[in-house]
Write a structure and sequence with these properties.
The complex is a heterodimer. By secondary structure, chain A is an alpha+beta fold. Chain A has 2 helices and 3 strands. In chain A, strand 1 and strand 2 form a beta hairpin. The termini of chain A are far apart. Classes of the chains: A alpha+beta, B mainly alpha. Chains A and B meet through helix 1 of A and helix 2 and helix 5 of B.
């Protein structure tokens, strides 16, 4: 990492009460409080949110793209895991 | 003079201009950072503060225009007055300097605006109280932003500390003007429209002492000064701001987009 650059933070915004925080992007900041300020200025300018989470990008552990086959392919042929074998009563509006 | 005999509108007009011109000129100044801030994130941060200030100026100048009753709207007041008719304090027209100097100016004025707006929410003038109620929320964030930066720079490297301390020495004398009560201030306070400046000063001073202590900076000594921007007597810098700000309306009168 370039020492002269501020570290990178990932930004998560909760659009309104009851919803999850969603990843919206990333930004540079020297500390977490500055990251919150920057996130507020960059990502909530148009009333996009009511709550902000920030986390140092280096603190996120990600799955390896090379392992994608091993991790995700085995689920492909297990269609019985999808709830598509039930008859859904017409009265049920949202499922 | 008998207080009851005074028609308050012309005085209120001048007072509202004073409050509004502060936001207008500072907003224009901060806007100069767009495209030049030390980081993209700060570029947007400063622009956000500038836009809040311009928004406050719009509300206040529109109201001033109504009080004056000469059919001048926010645009006429913002773009077609002469330098001597602007009533902003001299501090806000001072050049941006480096980022540290901008931050110091911002802390000094954010703290002032916060103490002023908080009290104006109780103004006897309902319209002014409503505008202050909106502005006070914005200003709380402005002060959070600027004072956080003051701590990072003041309590940062020897170089950043030296720069903000020297900016503080340079800008400090301009703060005294904010609290010098003249006839207009007294009249507004007597009619319950505006707070006593001595009270604002005491609260401002406490707030600034706290911010400076956290940033490990030294409070400069008060020195005599000769600026009275709030009476319309400005430093040499305002003319340049107005030349840029007013160019379009003067070259193309009535232009809109």
């Amino acid at each position: 990492m370039d020492e002269r650059q501020w570290p990178l933070y990932e930004v998560f915004i909760r659009a309104r009460g009851g919803l999850d925080h969603k990843h919206v992007g990333s930004l540079h900041a020297s500390d977490a409080r500055m990251a919150i300020d920057h996130a507020r200025d960059l990502y909530t300018r148009r009333q996009e949110g009511v709550s902000i989470w920030v986390v140092r990008s280096t603190d996120i552990t990600a799955s390896e793209p090379e392992e994608a086959e091993a991790l995700f392919e085995p689920a492909r042929d297990k269609i019985y895991r999808h709830p598509t074998f039930y008859d859904i009563p017409a009265e049920v509006k949202t499922l | 003079m008998n207080a009851a005999a005074i028609n308050v509108a012309p005085l209120l007009f001048r007072y509202v201009l004073r409050v509004g011109d502060l936001s207008l000129v500072l907003g224009q100044r901060l806007g100069e950072w767009v495209g030049h801030a030390p980081a993209l994130e700060e570029d947007l941060g400063l622009a956000n503060v500038a836009l809040d200030l311009i928004g406050q100026a719009r509300l206040l100048l529109s109201y001033a225009g109504e009080l004056e009753g000469r059919d001048r709207g926010e645009d006429e007041l913002a773009f077609l007055r002469e330098q001597g008719e602007y009533l902003n304090p001299t501090l806000v027209e001072q050049p941006n300097g480096d980022f540290g100097q901008t931050i110091v100016r911002q802390v000094l004025i954010d703290a002032y605006q916060l103490e002023l707006y908080e009290r104006l929410t109780n103004s006897a003038d309902e319209r002014l109280a409503a505008i202050a109620a909106k502005a006070v929320k914005e200003t709380r964030y402005h002060l959070r932003y600027s004072s956080d930066w003051l701590v990072r720079l003041g309590d940062g490297t020897p170089q950043s500390r030296a720069r903000v301390q020297s900016a503080l020495e340079r800008l400090w004398p301009y703060t005294l003007e904010l609290f010098e009560e003249d006839d207009l201030d007294r009249e507004m306070a007597d009619s319950g429209i505006a707070p006593r400046l001595a009270e604002v000063q005491a609260a401002w001073s406490r707030r600034i002492d706290g911010a400076l202590a956290e940033a490990t900076l030294e409070r400069p000594r008060d020195r005599p000064y000769a600026w009275f921007g709030k009476r319309g007597e400005h430093s040499e810098h305002l003319g340049y701001i107005l030349a840029e700000m007013q160019y379009l309306q003067r070259a193309y009168p009535g232009a809109r987009w």
